[in-house]
Amino acid sequence: MAAPSAAGLARRLRAWLPRLTPVRWSRYGPSYLEPDVSKELYQKPLEELSEEEKEKLKLRAVHPIKAAPPSVSTSVFSDPMISKFTNMMMKNGNKVLARSLMSQTLEAIKRKQLEKYHKAPEGEKETIECNPYVIFHQALKNCQPIIGLSSITRGGKTYQVPVPLNDSRKRFLAMKWLITECRENKHRRTLMPEKLSQELLQAFNNEGPIIKKKHVLHKMAEANRAYAHFRWW
Amino acid sequence: MLRSLRGLVCHPQKLDHRYALHTAAKDCLSSLVKQDVQTPAEGPRAVFYTSENDPANHAEHHEGRHYTIPLEEVKAVFPHGLPHRFQQQIKTFNEACLMVRKPALELFAYLKKSNFAHPAVRYVIYGEKGTGKTMTLCHVVHYCSRQGWLVLHIPDAHLWVKNCRELLQSSYNKDRLDQPLQASFWLKNFKTSNERFLKEIKTQRKYVWGKRDSTEEGRPLGEVVEQGLARVRNASDAVGVVLKEIKQQCHLGFFRLLVAVDGVNALWGRTTLKKEDKSPVSPEELTLVYNLRKMMRNDWLPLDLFQQLHVLLTLRIPELDTVFQRRSHKRGTEGHCWRGIVWTIGTSMGNSGTASGGAVVTTLSQTGSLFKPRSAYLPQELLGKEGFDVLDPFIPILVSNYSAAEFESCYQYYRHCRWLQHPRAHTEEGKEELRFLSGSNPRQLERLAGPL
User: Fold this and answer.
1) B271 touches B162 (CB < 8 A)
2) A37 and A73 in contact (C-beta within 8 Å)?
């Protein structure tokens, strides 16, 4: 009698305080640990492990582990940034298409750079970067804004207030700008991999429309410096 | 005296002192020594590379290695034969490197030893998807063009049975349909690859193209090709004329003929084309396919056969006597009897020519095929009953996935060309992962290595 009514009471309490209790919450208890998919730790024989690693393994032996999500892979070629970008490019859950577009983009970047490499004279060959992953990461880094703008309403008027951004927000904005630019500002017949590879190479060299957008944002933040005190966090 | 060349080549300095050699063997050895002295200099490249660029000299010890085709030769020999991804690789790396594999070496051995007086042997290269059938065919085409053969290369027969926008009713035969665009495209590429033969081969009949156009007897075949290119309406008929002339004249002794068809199962399958009244078109109603099917039969014998038959009968050749005696006692074997006579005549005729006869090398392909399941790769499945009966008897050549050595060679080649850029791809784990994911299938490996 008491147990079901206690659970029912908790549920009714939660309904009464909708904003104070989270709607989406993890079914895992506090003792659950994140899965560790790196093979290196588990393939080492016992003698080679350091003290910390032995402690970690002992901890993992007694705690329950959460299920690994399908996006995490043990492949040596998997890259979390590329996975995140692929997910953002995905439409209607068509991961197969998004992933193939991503691999075609990387191949296109590699081909363009290799052609440039083979045509360049001996002295310049070292300066040409042919690794598409390096280009991708550097391009995203170049596109990340340092400071962002937030709309804050005071006295009926909305002000654009300069605000610091955390890392995940910066990465998100860079990827979002890149994808929007490639979807909208291109000729009807150009394919996504071609346009994306072009934009990534331009961003790698610190030129192109996305870098321009970042600079425009920085200038707006600089111009609205006066409203910075509106921020309360 | 000379047991194994490999053993001797390992000790180049001891050659002249220890062994008394025949001069010819000495020259051969010295050339081999020069070649092998090159490879230790580019030591790591010896696994996947060979400097022997003539396919005629490719032997078993070249197996698994890549050889280069000079870019000018690529443009001349392969105006339309190479797969699209391979063309992209040529553009990126600025070189065309082909791997020497067992099926190609097997084919070379057969071609070298075949008796060209006999009717042409038909070879069918088959295998699972992506194992390298088209590349084997291209290797054979390169070998034959180096040997000076006339190469009739149809890059993909599937392109002739699907996606055709313009279908004209043929002026020659009302039941058939012409494909002007495909025919003119093929004629253009044929002209690029076989310029010198088009000047040497002469027509044996007069061909009338229209009210004002005609080609006289004895004109070079290049004129027929020009006619086909200039008047696109007659292009399919021009192709038919070219095929007929070449087939008739290949036993005269001026050239050897290689008919290389990729995707030969398209000729006996179904088409996706429709006539104006929306009824489906079957392949024999297309002029190009009809003429190509005639090339696939190995009855490449001269026109005035019956005249020669008459002459030979009056002379009473002993071989013909045996043929008559063996067959005449069986009833209803007249057809076989005639075939026996035809074969004997062909042999005696063909022995006179210096370079005559040829071969038909074809590839089966599921990739572009219509109405065939993805898992089909065997000749019976892809050709169907009709095609198999026409091509039978043929020599089947199986092309399978990479062996361990071939995979290693391909991997090293990609590393050397800077195609594998990912730092983890250069590790052992990366290599094992590539091997596992691709299943040693050449196409899958190439596609996986693309983004890496």
Assistant:
1) yes
2) yes
Give pLDDT, residue B303. Answer: 45
Q: Which two tokens stand for residue B187?
A: 């004629």
Q: Which two tokens stand for residue A165?
A: 């951004």
CA distance linking residue B94 with residue B89, whole number of Å: 8
User: What pLDDT shows up at residue B7?
Assistant: 46
pTM of the model as a whole? 0.80
- The two tokens of residue B3 are 């047991």
What residues does B398 pair with on adjacent strands? B126
Percent of chain A with pLDDT over 70: 90
Query: Residue B210 to residues A148, B6, B179, B187, B241: CA-CA distances in angstroms?
Result: 76, 64, 18, 19, 15
Give the pLDDT band (50/70/90) at residue B40.
very low
Give residues with Cβ within 8 angstroms of A216, minimum separation 6.
none
Residues of chain A with C-beta less than 8 angstroms from the C-beta of B424? 76-77
Looking at the predicted structure, is the pLDDT value of residue B368 above 70?
yes
Quote the ipTM score: 0.84
Residue B298 has pLDDT above 60, yes or no: yes
pLDDT at B315: 44
CA nearest to B246, candidates B285, B190, B185, B170: B190
Amino acid in the structure at residue A11: R
Q: Find the CB nearest B450 among A75, A107, A117.
A: A107
The DSSP string of chain A is -HHHHHHHHHHHHHHHSTTTS-SS--SS-TT-B-----HHHHHS-GGG--HHHHHHHHHHHHS-BPPPPTT----TT--HHHHHHHHHH--TT-HHHHHHHHHHHHHHHHHHHHHHHHHS-GGGGGGS---HHHHHHHHHHHH--SEEEEEEEETTEEEEEEEE--HHHHHHHHHHHHHHHHHHSS-TT--HHHHHHHHHHHHHTT-SHHHHHHHHHHHHHHHTGGGGGG---
**Is the Cβ pair B451, A132 closer than 8 Å?**
yes
Query: CA–CA separation, B416 vs B413, rounded Å?
Result: 5
Is beta strand B121-127 parallel, antiparallel or unpaired with respect to B358-363?
parallel
Nearest CA in chain B to A113: B92
Residue owning tokens 């147990």 = A3
CA Rg value for chain A: 24
Helices and strands of chain B, counted as H and E runs = 19, 11
pLDDT tens per residue across span B116-159: 888 889 999 999 999 999 999 999 999 999 998 999 999 999 99
**B22-26, B196-200, B445-449, range with the lowest pLDDT:** B22-26
Query: How many whole angstroms from its chain centre is CA B98?
Result: 15
Angle, helix A209-223 to helix A167-184, in steps of 10 degrees: 130
Which residues, 6 or more positions from A203, have their beta carbon under 8 angstroms from its beta carbon? A139, A140, A142, A143, A178, A210, A211
Q: Tell me the torsion sign for CA atoms B346, B348, B352, B354.
A: positive
Can you say how many angstroms the Cα of residue A16 is from the centroid of all Cα atoms in its chain?
A: 36
DSSP element (H, E) containing B358: strand B358-363
Please report the pLDDT score of residue B139 as a whole number. Answer: 94
pLDDT digits (tens, 9 = 90+) for B222-253: 888 988 899 888 899 999 999 988 888 888 87
CB-CB contact of B141 with B413 (8 Å): no
- Find the chain B residues whose C-beta atoms sit closer than 8 A to any C-beta of A: 88, 91-94, 418-419, 421-425, 427, 429-430, 433, 450-452
